[in-house]
Amino acid sequence: MEVLGLTGGIACxxxxxxxxxxxxxxxxxxxxxxxxxxxxxxTEGLDAxxxxxxxxxxxPDGSLDxxxxxxxxxxxxxxxxxxxxxLHPRIGAESxxxxxxxxxxxxxFALYDAALLVENGTHTSFAGLIVVTARPEVQRARLMERDGxxxxxxxxxxxxxxxxxxxxxxxxxxxxxxGTRARLEARAVEVYAELVVAHGPPxxxxxxxxxx
Length: 212
Description:
Blueprint: E1 2-8, H1 14-23, E2 28-30, H2 31-37, H3 44-53, H4 66-73, H5 77-102, E3 109-113, E4 129-133, H6 136-147, H7 151-159, H8 164-168, E5 173-176, H9 181-199
Parallel strand pairs: 1-3, 1-4, 2-3, 4-5
Helix pairs in contact: 1-9, 3-5, 6-7
């Protein structure tokens, strides 16, 4: 089973692309979901976060208050490095464990969905990289509608990320989402078909997929 990275810019539609692949049986390991799981209640990861930042980063039910923690590390480079040192190794290890568990099932390929694959250089370890893009004005409009922020705030969020051109430069497949959802899904299906030819189809109903 080959693993390809899936990434893109904020409000570009990466989640919608992942859904197209999931609907066709391709397993997708979501780094954001893994990040939540490694600091779930009762985990060693949550204990480490509390030890570093104090119990005031917990919600009343004992779970991690991600918003409050984010406020603690925002603009504080030292605090962010401490948090990353706690989270990144755990996220990486759990993600690789989930991908490894998929290996015997006969899938031709799987996707690893993460926002910072290019920024942290891990895209080079995958068999390919799918980058989801959109024009800047489309990103701004979607952010303003989705999150209820001003145009200036939306632009600031976009500017805080690497330019999409840097990600496109190392992509093996690019999916532009500047238009309609139908166009996005049609392009995602095209990429899916190309990957099936290159790597084989997903396994179906517990049976190993036929290799090309």
